[in-house]
Write a structure and sequence with these properties.
By secondary structure, this protein is mainly alpha-helical. It has four helices and no strands.
Length: 136
């Protein structure tokens, strides 16, 4: 076999197999990312509803600690993604948008408790939009 002779069919088959593996990896990573984002959306919405349920008995200082803990959790999550299926910019924007919704809900909910379920729905929506964007 000379240096300038190679098996074109074998090379094409190898490239096709690599493309199929890449596409399969993207599908699996995208599914994982959507479930993860929706799970965080459900957890954040649930936390807002818990705040609504117990806000009459717990001080606002505790909610500041809770908010700081959630932001820390999301920051750690941002750094430790097992799969880089989530674009970093999308993830940072999602966390920032959720933080604004969560903070506004907590600020207004103290005086108007009916805002808590609205904030929970809005917070979940932020994560759902991010999950939709990953799935496109």
């Amino acid at each position: 076999m000379t240096d300038d002779v190679f098996d074109k069919a074998g090379a094409r088959a190898a490239l096709d197999a690599a493309e199929q593996a890449r596409n399969a990896g993207r599908r699996v990573a995208g599914g994982w990312a959507r479930r993860y984002l929706l799970g965080f959306g459900a957890a954040s919405a649930g936390s807002v509803l818990v705040v609504w349920a117990v806000s009459a008995w717990v001080s606002s200082a505790w909610w500041g600690v809770w908010y700081a803990a959630l932001v820390t959790l999301f920051a750690v999550w941002l750094r430790r993604q097992p799969v880089r299926a989530l674009p970093r910019r999308l993830l940072v924007l999602t966390i920032l948008a959720w933080s604004v919704v969560f903070g506004a809900t907590m600020a207004v909910g103290i005086d108007y408790p009916a805002v808590y379920p609205i904030g929970a729905a809005a917070g979940f929506s932020v994560w759902a939009v991010a999950a939709w964007r990953v799935g496109r």
